[in-house]
Each structure stands twice: as C-alpha cells, then as structure tokens.
Amino acid sequence: MKYPPLFTDDFVVFGILMLILAFIFYTSSGTHPFWKKFYVFFPSLMMCYLLPSILTSLGVIAPEWNVLDTSGQPLLDENLKPVIAKLSIYKVASRLLLPAALILLTLSIDLKALMGLGSKALIMFLAGTVGVILGGPLAVYLVSFFSPETVGGVGNDAVWKGLSTIAGSWIGGGANQTAMLEIFKYNQEKYGAMVLVDIIVANIWMAILLYGIGKRETIDKWLEADNSSIDTLKDKVSSYSASITRNPSLDDYIILLGVTFGAVGFSHWASIMLPKLIISVLPQVADTSSILSTFGDSFFWMVTVATVLGVLFSFTPIKKYEGIGASKIGTVLIYILVAAIGMRMDLASVWSNPGLMIVGLIWMMVHGLVLIIVAKLIKAPYFFFAVGSQANIGGAASAPIMASAFHPSLASVGVLLAIFGYIIGTYGAILSAMLMELVAPVG
Fold first, then answer.
1. Closest CA to 192 of 363, 349, 396, 338
2. Do residues 318 and 3 lie in contact, with contact meaning Cβ atoms separated by under 8 Å?
3. What counts of helices (H) and strands (E) characterise the chain?
4. pTM above 0.70?
5. What's the pLDDT tens digit per position in 223-245?
6. Which position among 120, 140, 332, 408 has the lowest Cβ density within 10 Å, counted as fewest Cβ atoms?
7. CB of 357 closer than 8 Å to CB of 201
8. What crossing angle do the helices spanning 298-313 and 411-439 adopt, rounded to 10°?
C-alpha cells in the first residue's frame, strides 16, 4: 500500500481479524435462512480469506505501507528508496501459530490409516507439479502472440526470469522462490510485480478450490471417485477421538499447550542448528543460488521438525490429549493464519499489472486442467485434487488448511505433501524456467 492504512497497530489489526472470524463462525453456524443460503455459495473458509482482503483493498488495514514524512510525502532512506512499515501479524502466525497447529493436528494421526489412502494422493500432487512446470511456458507462449512486451525483456529484466520465482513458490514455497531469484538474477526492482501475481492468483485459485468443497459430492460423482479410504481415515480418527473425549481441566490445557509450544521452540532451535550443521558438511547449501539451498532454509526445517514431532507424539500418551480437543485448538490457530494470509491480498492491485496477471491466470488454468485430466483418469476424489494442488501452490501454510476444510483429521495429508513440495520445488522450477526461456520472445 502506498500510504498508511486507517489502522497500523498490530494489536488493533489482530483484534479486527479475530472479530471477522467470530462474525463468520457465528453467522455460518446459525439457522437464519439468509446466512444458510449465503454460505452455500460462499464457504466460510473462503470468507475468512476474503473479508480481510477487502479491508486491505479499502485501506482499513494493510500488511505493509510507505512511511510518510512530516510533509506527507513518502519517507526516503539513504538510497532514496521509500521506507516501508510492516505489520508482524503474518510473521507471528506463520512462525508461531503454524508450527503449533501442525503439531496439534498431527498428534492424533493414524499412520497406518494414512498409508491406506494409497498412491492417488501422491499422483495428484505430482500432477499439480507437472501442471505448474508446463503452465508457465504455455502461458508465456500464448501471451507472446498478443502482448510480446509483457513476457519479453533481455538480461536480468527478462520476464521469464521473474516468472521462475513464481514457479519456485507454486511448487515448493518461499525458500524455492528465493532460490530462483538468486539463480536467475532477476531485476529485484521489478520483483514486487511477480510477488503480486503469486499472491493474488494463488488466492483466487484457493477460493475456487474452497468453493468446490461445497460441490464435492457432485464433482466426485463426475470423477467416478472412490472415497472409501478417506472415509475410513475420518471414521477411525473420529471414533478414537470420541473414545477418549473427556471434560478438560486447567491442568490438561496447561500441559497440552506447554508441550506444544515447547515443541515449537525446539522446532525453531532445530531450524537454526540444522542448516548450520548441513552447511558445515555441504557448503554449497549456503549459496541461495544452489539447487540444494532448500536444505539451508530455516522455514523448511521449522515446518518439517514440527510435523515430525507431531507424528512422534502420536506414538506416546500425548496422543490422548486429542480427547480435550487438541485438533480443535490447532484448527483455531489455522484460521488465524488464514485471516493473516487474506490480509496480504489487495484486490485493487489486481489491475496494476494486467498483462502479468493474465500470464498468471493462464498458468493456473493449465495447472488446474492437468489436475482435472489426471483426476478423471485415475478416478481420484476431489479431496486429493484440492489438497494435491494446494500442497504445490500454497505449501505448508495452505495445504493443511485445505485438507482440514474437509475434516480436521485429514490435515496431516496436506502437511506431508507440502514438505515433499519443498524438496522438489527448486528442481521443478528450474525446469519450468528453462522451458519459459525457450518460448519467450527475444527482446
């Protein structure tokens, strides 16, 4: 945002986001005819993204903005660049609440039942990856016919180099995106436009996937999908949860949260130490332009270690804390993250660079088309379609959100696939970038 929003204080904005969540859950759980019909067309999870983004678009809140001097002009630093102020809500949500949610959502996991889902989950994830790899080159090729300047450029200004960062983000995550920026040396002054396309198109696609959840029975019927393995997993987890449900005491909550955030603290410590250890053995990991750089990224290790700890807890008595609602607490944390993600999308900025936005939309359409074709061929349920897509496009922050929208017990499926995406993201993005270079117009 160019100028400060109406509310710039973290605590005030956090209160606004929580009020939005409360309003959505209150209206969606009621019996009023208007709201019942409204949430048929606009799922509550989608609204948790959309309402914060509307407030950002109207200038009420914003994740970042230009700092103004006493004359009302943007304050400049020593390099004559605008000074940017940022809210820390998303950082707290993604670095503190996300790992806590991953632990709480996986501590009751049934690994045997999870493995019983079969190979379709992995196949759909890989189909999504192929869709991203091919979608970029196809989008560049098609747009070059009517707007070659949009996808042209030379040297470090070549648009395909910038688009490589989107490929990294949409297959893996932020670490892979940064790796692409370093590998292909795209002009960083123009990088913001790529980030904008990444965030807006990814959020539009997620809204479409969330809308599809309400139509999943119709979609699964068209796909001729067999949901038995998914239903088995949901039933097993639900039955186990019902068998251990008890009235929680203060001691229960203190112990659960103590173990959870202690594990979060360990995850962060490990995310600092593991990269150092790996770099001492493989120095090239420290080079952000290396294809191994993902293993030097702290966020990757934070998510991985938190997930591993949650799985390990499922083999200990800690698993029984699902009986006091561990997964429900985890879901609350996920929804706070959802609102924080939604706040980062300024709907008005969609029109700031329409050419690149068209590239992104075509790209995402190819991704979706590949998923539809593969899902139809292997008769995969819509659950695998949606979660396989988000494990690519959204990574660890969005995949468990999408999975838990079907059922909280399924969140771990999204987490595990997203971690796999981090591992292969850089390699897939490099391949996509090479293909985009081949089809991009010269100059």
1. 349
2. no
3. 19, 2
4. yes
5. 998 888 787 777 777 777 778 88
6. 332
7. yes
8. 150
